[in-house]
Design goal:
This protein is an alpha+beta fold. 46% of the residues lie in helices and 20% in strands. It is built from five helices and three strands. Strands 1-2-3 form a three-stranded antiparallel sheet. Strand 1 and strand 2 form a beta hairpin. The chain is globular, with a radius of gyration of 14 Å. The protein starts with 5 loop residues before the first helix and ends with a helix. Bound molecules: FE2/S2 (inorganic) cluster.
Length: 126
């Protein structure tokens, strides 16, 4: 059996939603201290819905595929749904990741949560 599913390879080779949102409503950056990989998420939020999401990932293939899939899973969804996104759901949507690569999908979950926290903080400050 191949180590990586076709979906992982597809999202690694053709990642969706790569880039920056200049006027983002929330930005989250997280890193994995062990491997040094970094992920940054940008969210555009209107009426409690994720209108747009983009990411930059400086990391391994699994981290790139995970961030790509995570953006697809939350785009157009309510903020509450994005808040509940887990790395297990991201890995499942990718048809699985090798066990020792699950921490890469965790970066995607953490980056989205960090961006949502940033969005909430900005709103509280208003
Ligand atoms: Fe660092 Fe995958 S090895 S996120």
């Amino acid at each position: 059996m191949a180590l990586y599913s076709e979906k992982v390879m597809d999202h690694f080779r053709n990642p969706r939603n790569v880039g920056v949102i200049e006027d983002a409503d929330g930005v989250g950056e997280v890193g994995n201290a062990k491997c040094g990989d970094i992920m940054k998420m940008y969210l555009k939020i209107e009426d409690d819905m994720i209108k747009d999401v983009k990411f930059e990932t400086f990391g391994c293939g699994s981290a790139i595929a995970s961030s790509s899939m995570a953006t697809e899973l939350i785009k157009g969804k309510p903020v509450a749904d994005a808040m509940n996104l887990t790395n297990e759901a991201v890995a499942e949507a990718l048809d699985g990741l090798p066990g020792y690569k699950m921490h890469c999908s965790l970066l995607a979950e953490q980056a989205i949560h960090a961006a949502l926290d940033d969005y909430k903080k900005r709103n509280e400050a208003k």
